[in-house]
Amino acid sequence: MPVYSARVLVSLRPSVLDPAGEATRSAASRLGVEGIVKLRIGKAVELEIEAPDLATARERLSLLSDRLLANTVIENWTLELAASGEGSSTSSPVEEG
Amino acid sequence: MTIGVVVFPGSNCDRDVRWATEGCLGVPTRFLWHEERDLSGLDAVIIPGGFSYGDYLRCGAIASFAPILQEVAAFVERGGRVLGICNGFQVLTEMGLLPGALTRNEKLHFVCEDTPLQVSPGHCQWLKGYGDGETIHLPIAHGEGRYQVDPGQLQQLEDSGCVAFRYQANPNGSVGAVAGLTNPAGTVLGLMPHPERACDPATGGIDGRRLLASLLG
Questions:
Q1: Chain-chain contact of B101 with A68 (C-beta, under 8 angstroms)
Q2: Are strands B3-7 and B44-47 parallel, antiparallel or unpaired?
Q3: A44–B contact, CB cutoff 8 A
Q4: What count of Cα atoms within 13 Å lies in the side-chain half-sphere of residue B122?
């Protein structure tokens, strides 16, 4: 059965305050890196999944992202999925819970 | 009358809760290991504070898939009473039994202090021992207690009397200064403050007693 590589990016919804991101932005300024007007911290989850085909892998990982990896009350997620070993990944349209 | 206290790997207020319910109030209490499924004979379930599963992924996210909580969800369906304290409140929101989410405190600090709260008992049977608008003092101890919900839903919660506890000096940036919520049926209550730490006069105030005593029915 083919193995697919995936990356799920989880980010706070724009309306949700990100105090850790704000603190990091302040530190960037103290480091002397100027001009950063926005800094939001999220998570990247890397996975490999065995599935009969790409569509099935996408379906399973969408469920996983929506129900477990992200809390859609406060977070958005996007899924990048490709056959394992392929250099470039196929990015799905942005999906939002 | 028997109370069950859920114990996850990483729970750290389970014994405090048991001391409050059994030691201070004399209610028989038993621990429920997260892999158990047996809630027989229980009249109420408490999900205690702590760091279930190390708070990996998000506070309460992994706990919400524990076998015991599938039974707790069914218990709620049958009208059983469930109280979530601190991490327990986070778990209840992750399970979808209460709306919204608890996020990182606005100032990033872990806050550990006694805090004044305004109680709105509304339709919640847990709070019948408190007067409407009464101020009580309970300890808080959390780093991720900033309640978050969209403005429309917050209004709905306010209008339906589901905001049971409100901070009087908002310590974490919660929207609407929400410290605790009930479900519309008044059977599920979640709050960030720790009523179980305010039951024994030897360790401070006893404002939490009436809440836990109301578990007696």
A1: no
A2: parallel
A3: no
A4: 25
Contacts of A86 (CB under 8 A, 6+ apart): A5
The minimal CB distance from B173 to the residues A15, A17, A73 is found for A17
Window 64-93 of A: residues touching B by CB (8 A cutoff) are: 68-69, 71, 73-74
Of B94, B104, B146, Cβ closest to residue A71: B94
> What span, in angstroms and rounded, lies between the C-alpha atoms of A91 and B9?
37
Q: Which of B59, B86, B162, B199 is catalytic?
A: B86
Beta bridge partners of B9: none
Q: What is the pLDDT along chain B (217 residues), one digit of tens a residue?
A: 899 999 999 999 999 999 999 999 999 999 999 999 999 999 999 999 999 999 999 999 999 999 999 999 999 999 999 999 999 999 999 999 999 999 999 999 999 999 999 999 888 878 888 999 999 999 999 999 999 999 999 999 999 999 999 999 999 999 999 999 999 999 999 999 999 999 999 988 999 999 988 876 6
Tokens of B137: 């003092």
| ipTM value | 0.83
Tokens standing for B86?
């601190």
pTM: 0.91
Q: What is d(CA B83, CA B76) in angstroms, rounded to the nearest whole number? A: 11
What separation in angstroms does the CA of B141 have from each of B51, B56, B91? Answer: 12, 19, 16
CA distance B109 to chain A (A): 10
